[in-house]
Amino acid sequence: MDLEFGRGLRPPKRDSWKTTLLLAYQSLGVVYGDLSISPLYVYKSTFAEDIQHSETNEEIFGVLSFVFWTLTLIPLIKYVSIVLRADDNGEGGTFALYSLICRHANVSLLPNRQIADEELSTYKLERPPDTTDKSRIKKWLEKHRKLRVALLIMVMIGTCMVIGDGVLTPAISVFSAVSGLEFSLSKDHREYAVIPITCVILAFLFALQHYGTHRVGFLFAPIVLAWLFCMSAVGLYNIIHWNPQIYQALNPSYMFKFLKKTRKYGWMSLGGILLCMTGSEAMFADLGHFSYSAIQLAFTCLVYPALILAYMGQAAYLSKHHDFYSSSQVGFYIAVPGLAVITVMLVTTFLTSLVIVLCWHRPPILALAFLLFFGSIEALYFSASLIKFLEGAWLPILLALILMAVMFIWHYTTIKKYEFDLHNKVTLEWLLALGDKLGMVRVPGIGLVYTDLTSGVPANFSRFVTNLPAFHRVLVFVCVKSVPVPHVLPAERYLVGRVGPPGHRSYRCIVRYGYRDVHQDVDSFEAELLESLATFVKLDASFRCSAASNELQEAEADAERERPLTVVAASNPLRGRASYDGQDSVRHHSAASTVEMEASSGTAAKQVRFFIDSEVSSPEEAAESKLVAEELEALAAAREAGTAFILGHSHVQCKPGSSVLKRLAVDVGYNFLRRNCRGPDVALRVPPASLLEVGMVYVL
């Protein structure tokens, strides 16, 4: 079981009860830390406003009623019962919802979408799409580009708000927990103890992150579990000892009495009540590390009852002790999660309502009811949080806006670069005619030309051969693309096809990754690519042999142009197999002969073996088998000669007459990011000795 990469890599089967219990136990230390310590500061933050407390305790009962129904409606009903079901192959979070929507409706702004992507096993739909009965919402989104851009911006806002809040939440949570030492320390020692201890704990927490989620979960789960049990026991004691009638506050009428009596200050205090559900989004965001049943079990059976008992116990104690204290940190507690947390919740509510219609195919009225019910509750808290914007909430908002600007500038310029490449790509006939030109040389080796295009010959290759009239005997146009799924199975990662006739030795390989996949290192990628090409050669040969005699000329004519791509696994069981190991030798097995080639280089050599089926039933198949052997021999010889990685080194500038905003975004913003971010050669881990960079100027 791989807890670090989530359920996307695991087969879609139901977990056993032992596995569910184990995952539920681990989730305590990862998911529920922030939610579990919220009782430390909710009441303190709520009563920081100028609220007069009466002997009837209507203010305390009203706040407890708000806390109870907020925890019940948002974390329990919205997230645990509804939102967690909107997972993307076991993954959760804002991107998972957006990915799910993009698969069920054509709302993605990525330009290199292919029909073949829909055949991925993780590209599952809730039910087959009905082309004759599209919902109006789906047609509306697909028709208007501005709506698709607005949807992407909303997703970016939600994602950046999570990051902005995540920068500050650990510090606030740990500081709140350590602040309890103030009661046992003198005033002179508080400032020298609380902050240093907080810093040490934070450093310890971040030092443990690289050990993985499951190890962190096992380490902190007993701490959170002990905290929840102690909090429940103390709460139960306070209820019995101080005010057994506190359960009456669960009546929702106390919420209206509280707002009616406190008016403006009661509405402002909702920013403190909001803190009781901070961390709820983590249940959905961390879904990929655990499972739906594990998170549901942990929250409903342990975390939720413990929180309710803790809040009821505090309210019972406070109903007999009105001497509340305030702190200079209270306003900060209200303000910081204030806009960040509730904005993420609003984005999740909106996206989930789209999932209900587009993915679950429920009536639009049901999605509207979900949006209005939960959206109105969250909008109420959102409005209360706006008041504290200047007291600290501006900081996570500013961080989120900076991150969103970076994302949007990078996305916008990348799309424009793709459109430039698409407009300036050269034809296949131009590539095929290169071999007839005087002075054009095919040099030994494999040339991997990286491009974002999924068809055609990229402009960077035409620029390369124009300045250097030579290219490799085996040419592979490689496109590394992302698809709207969390994971792509290794057997489905490669789409391989020919570019031109078999004798030209030119291929196209599209390498597909999900948004949760880790890209391969260059050695394993090169090995798998070679195996995939070899497997494709045999599959392509079987395709040509199976063509009927009256269709043979048409198939040969098709070979002159680029045919559809084929999903190829490195060890495809269909029609032959290809294997790769570590010494420099090539063997071909067929019905007629066995050919073995040894490399002249001695040390650190590699060996490549290709096996071809020995079953030959006709002269045509014998001739085809011979051609396959020759092509595989050419692949192996090219591999022995070495592999060159041809990448574009781009510079982007705006067209004359572009707006000032576009110039700032592209000329300044994008080029600054490009110069200070990892280049494609570093991201792909290309050896410097094998790298060829082609300069390209993009005028957008």
UniProtKB/TrEMBL annotation:
Ranges for domain K+ potassium transporter integral membrane = 23-337
| Keyword Transport assigned | yes
Record keywords, A-Z: Ion transport, Membrane, Potassium, Potassium transport, Transmembrane, Transmembrane helix, Transport
Q: Which GO terms describe its molecular function?
A: potassium ion transmembrane transporter activity
Q: Where are the transmembrane segments?
A: 21-40, 60-77, 149-172, 192-211, 218-240, 265-285, 297-318, 330-358, 365-387, 393-412
Q: Which InterPro entries match?
A: K+_transporter (IPR003855), K_trans_C (IPR053952), K_trans_N (IPR053951)
Instruction: Tell where it localizes.
Output: Membrane
K+ potassium transporter C-terminal domain boundaries: 444-699
- What's the protein's topology in the membrane? Multi-pass membrane protein
Q: Where is it found, in Gene Ontology cellular component terms?
A: plasma membrane
* Family from the record: Belongs to the HAK/KUP transporter (TC 2.A.72.3) family.
- Tell me what this protein is called: Potassium transporter
Organism name: Eragrostis curvula (weeping love grass)
